[in-house]
Amino acid sequence: MVLDIRLRINVPPGTFVKIQEKLKKNESLIPGVVKEIVTKSPFHESGIMVLLENGVIGRVKEIVNNPLELDVYEQTPFELINLLEIALRELIVKCLATNDNWWKLLPSDVREHAEQRAERDSKFQKTMRMSKHSKIDQIDFADLERIFIKRDFWKNHFKDIFLDEKILSAKLQEISIMRNHVDHSKSLSRDNEERLRIYCKDILEMIQNYKKS
Length: 213
Fold this sequence. Notes:
The protein has about 210 residues and is α+β, with helices and mostly antiparallel strands. It is built from six helices and four strands.
């Protein structure tokens, strides 16, 4: 069943959506998880305005029922990388947040860098009346890989999901390089785009299998 993007009731916090970023009408749709609903009325013809967990504001253009089951060949590289990043962040929180002190257990430089970014962004967030990002959203994509391969994290949480530490690390490092190209509006070669889709498909399927187990 396709949910109506114009109805506020259909996009509660926690819903995975694709939005058109505010004031950027020609940009690719940005996938993400709804953090807050900005639109106050129960209906808006152009789509409900929301704030995503990653801090981006825009109008909902698509509601995704199960993001991990999206066809990677139907997503743009930008959408695909965002989808993977969201899935990885959610997995980290799901696996580590059973320990109330999980944030302090991250590699110290990763944690400190994220906290510096949060402090730097706090003034802007206040000006834009935006909610503070969750801690995990302040971590760079490249540093996510370091969390997965941290020795105790890998052994206790991620080994059974991804099986091979070196393969996962190599894929995430390559994706990080491709992500930088995409973020700076550089196109990927056909070979790199195909490799990106294969890597993302493999990682997302592993996460999906873990969630089903």
